[in-house]
């Protein structure tokens, strides 16, 4: 990731040449110190958005009123934000106002945890007024300032503490932890989307078990949709790491069969894409449970979800006796279109019948039979098979 930092340095140099200050800040500095892979690079600057827009040709004004613009530099994006503090958190949601401030130290003081409140200049100078580096070295999560105040300002920080602890395998300072215990009721005020974002990050972390344990011990999960009504759900602990919402919903549905997918989607405000995935995984799991239909289960599941099916079953503690990918690859057909008997040819087999919904049913029966190996995917065999099937079905 050296090149990315080199590009960020070029951005910072341009700002400095204009007379401004610039530092990389937040998660990327933390990850750099940890020698983790760095995703995005955020830059803090003394310049106001209007000035940043003058410095660079390609700028996307994503949140000018909050001081943020995206600078495009050699096909990379950098979030450049004016030094600011946030005040007047009303209803525990978004700050009523942000104020631009003149020093990086002030900007760092509004940040959530000391490990996230470190700045680094283009030449490598570090500004670390809250001893974030020491916290990182000791793998500790602690707030900038009093936990009580900072969590009252923005209760999401409690969720972030739990999430970071799972992601980084850091421990939360005892006093911060006890404030979470005390103040968790404030999570009531947050939008479900913000909680959802942290919850899924926590559950898909490598140290998700640590995260899960903390959700349980603090009782924070009482403020989550679904879990609120079914607190026993938290006892369902994935045996291996899940990697997305689709897998997570399927896991809980199969572990404790009284949660349905639609309820997850509505109450956590998730997308239709996630709903579709969870439904596919659950359907495939039921077919798999019926044992003799493993081929058909993989066929129905489709190529995109094979890997998730493996993740799901291992989270349920099941050792598969087959490889989903191999099984899928060895299927005689992968879609209805691959059948050797086409729709028009099927109609020729039953010339007395009009077009209708029987066609879909017959194609479906042929698919299942070919996939399960009771009929080969050859035209004349399919014709014989479908005639016989028709006889049996009419009686
Ligand atoms: P990651 O991107 O890996 O989730 P991150 O630390 O970059 O971790 P972001 O949500 O991208 O987290 O936020 C960037 C920085 O902004 C944080 O490092 C922190 O300094 C600050 N920050 C983000 N959310 C909050 C918050 N709710 N309260 C205070 N500071 C915050
Ligand atoms: Mg980030």
TrEMBL record:
Q: Which InterPro entries match?
A: Bact_CCA-adding_enz_type3_sf, CCA-adding_enz_C, NT_sf, PolA_pol_head_dom, PolyA_RNA-bd
Q: Which residues form the Poly A polymerase head domain?
A: 22-141
Q: Give the GO terms filed under biological process for this record.
A: tRNA processing
GO MF terms here are: metal ion binding; nucleotide binding; nucleotidyltransferase activity; tRNA binding
Q: Name one Pfam family in it.
A: PolyA_pol_RNAbd
Residue ranges constituting the tRNA nucleotidyltransferase/poly(A) polymerase RNA and SrmB- binding domain according to the UniProt record: 169-227
Q: Which domain of life is it from?
A: Bacteria
Q: Where is the CCA-adding enzyme C-terminal domain?
A: 251-386
Co-factor requirement: Mg(2+)
Keywords, sorted A to Z: Magnesium, Metal-binding, Nucleotide-binding, Nucleotidyltransferase, RNA-binding, Transferase, tRNA processing
Instruction: Give the family, as the similarity comment puts it.
Output: Belongs to the tRNA nucleotidyltransferase/poly(A) polymerase family.
NCBIfam families with a match to the protein in the record: PRK13299.1 (NF009814)
Name of this chain's protein? tRNA nucleotidyltransferase (CCA-adding enzyme)
Q: What is the lineage of its organism?
A: Bacteria, Bacillati, Bacillota, Bacilli, Bacillales
């Amino acid at each position: 990731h050296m090149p990315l930092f080199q590009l960020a340095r070029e951005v910072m140099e341009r700002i400095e040449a204009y007379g401004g200050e610039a530092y990389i800040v937040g998660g990327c500095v933390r990850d750099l110190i940890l020698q983790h892979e760095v995703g995005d690079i955020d830059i803090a600057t003394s310049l106001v958005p209007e000035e940043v827009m003058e410095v660079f040709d390609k700028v996307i004004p994503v949140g000018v009123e909050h001081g943020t613009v995206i600078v495009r530099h050699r096909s990379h994006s950098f979030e450049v934000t004016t030094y600011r503090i946030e005040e007047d958190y009303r209803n525990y949601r978004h700050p009523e106002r942000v104020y631009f401030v003149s020093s990086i130290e002030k900007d760092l003081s509004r940040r959530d945890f000391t490990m996230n409140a470190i700045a680094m200049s283009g030449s490598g100078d570090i500004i670390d007024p809250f001893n974030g580096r020491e916290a990182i070295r000791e793998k500790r999560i602690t707030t900038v300032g009093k936990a009580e105040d900072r969590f009252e300002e923005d209760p999401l920080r409690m969720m972030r503490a739990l999430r970071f602890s799972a992601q980084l395998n850091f421990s939360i300072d005892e006093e911060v932890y006890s404030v979470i215990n005390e103040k968790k009721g404030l999570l009531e005020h947050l939008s479900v989307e913000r909680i959802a974002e942290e919850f899924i990050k926590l559950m898909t972390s490598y140290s998700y078990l640590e995260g899960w344990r903390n959700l349980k011990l603090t009782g924070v999960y009482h403020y989550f949709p679904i879990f609120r009504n079914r607190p026993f759900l938290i006892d369902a602990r994935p045996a291996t790491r899940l990697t997305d919402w689709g897998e997570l919903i399927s896991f809980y549905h199969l572990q404790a069969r009284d949660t349905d997918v639609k309820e997850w989607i509505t109450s956590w405000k998730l997308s239709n894409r996630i709903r579709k995935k969870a439904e596919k995984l659950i359907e495939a799991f039921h077919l798999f449970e019926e044992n003799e239909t493993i081929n058909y289960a993989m066929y129905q599941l489709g190529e995109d979800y094979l890997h998730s099916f493996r993740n799901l079953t291992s989270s349920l503690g099941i050792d598969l006796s087959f490889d989903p990918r191999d099984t899928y690859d060895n299927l005689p057909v992968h879609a209805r279109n691959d059948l050797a008997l086409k729709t028009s040819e099927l109609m020729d087999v039953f010339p007395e019948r009009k077009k209708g919904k029987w066609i879909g049913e017959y194609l479906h029966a042929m698919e299942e039979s070919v996939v399960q190996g009771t009929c080969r995917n050859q035209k004349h065999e399919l014709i014989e098979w479908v005639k016989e099937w028709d006889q049996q079905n009419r009686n």
